[in-house]
Amino acid sequence: MKARRHFAIRDILASELISTQEELCDALRKHGYDVTQATVSRDMKELRLTKIPDKNGYHYALPDVTNYKSSLERMKRVFKDSVINIDSSENIIVIKTLPGTAPTVGFVIDAMDNENILGNVAGDDTIFVLIKPLEQVAAVQAEFRRYIEE
């Protein structure tokens, strides 16, 4: 449930300017999540939300994924918390995740900006990652495995 709620928070922040924890609580409730301020506060800490300036003051935003060190740490955390199994067939890597966490893992894979990854399709608990060229499948798969093993 937490992973789904985190995904909902990302969606909300992408489409709305949220300035307070209470506004985020209200937005989550509108999306069907029964949350308390304490839960949202913990979620904000785990997602490392920051306040950034806008024309009306400040609003919450996700951390900058271009910062490699925090991105790498985030990738490892998301993989470790969500991924159950990694397998491959030809040039497709199949990642099984906990229910509801595949979209978040797919987002993290996209943020990797790996030139060997053409893209991914994430369902509820399965992700198909298309690799090109074929000879790089093992290397990308090994990289994913390192994230869940470290």
Radius of gyration: 17 Å
Q: How many discrete domains?
A: 2
Shape: elongated
Helix content: 40-55%
For the largest beta-sheet, the strand count, sense and barrel status come to: 4 strands, antiparallel
How large is the count of helical segments? 6
Q: Identify low-pLDDT runs.
A: none
* CATH class membership of the largest domain: Alpha Beta
Mean pLDDT over the residues: 89
CATH topology of the largest domain: Gyrase A, domain 2
Work out the number of β strands. Answer: 6
Q: State the end-to-end distance.
A: 24 Å
Series of H and E elements: HHHEEHEEHEEH
What layout of secondary structure does this protein have?
Layout: H1 2-15, H2 21-30, H3 37-47, E1 50-54, E2 57-61, H4 68-82, E3 83-89, E4 92-97, H5 102-112, E5 117-122, E6 126-131, H6 137-149
Antiparallel strand pairs: 1-2, 3-4, 4-6, 5-6
How would you explain this protein's 3D organization?
The protein is of the alpha+beta class and 150 residues long. It has two domains: 2-61, Winged helix-like DNA-binding domain superfamily/Winged helix DNA-binding domain (Arc Repressor Mutant, subunit A, Orthogonal Bundle); 68-149, Gyrase A, domain 2 (2-Layer Sandwich). Helices cover 49% and strands 23% of the residues. The strands form two sheets. It has a four-stranded antiparallel β-sheet with strand order 3-4-6-5. A two-stranded antiparallel ribbon has the order 1-2. The protein is elongated and about 50 Å long.
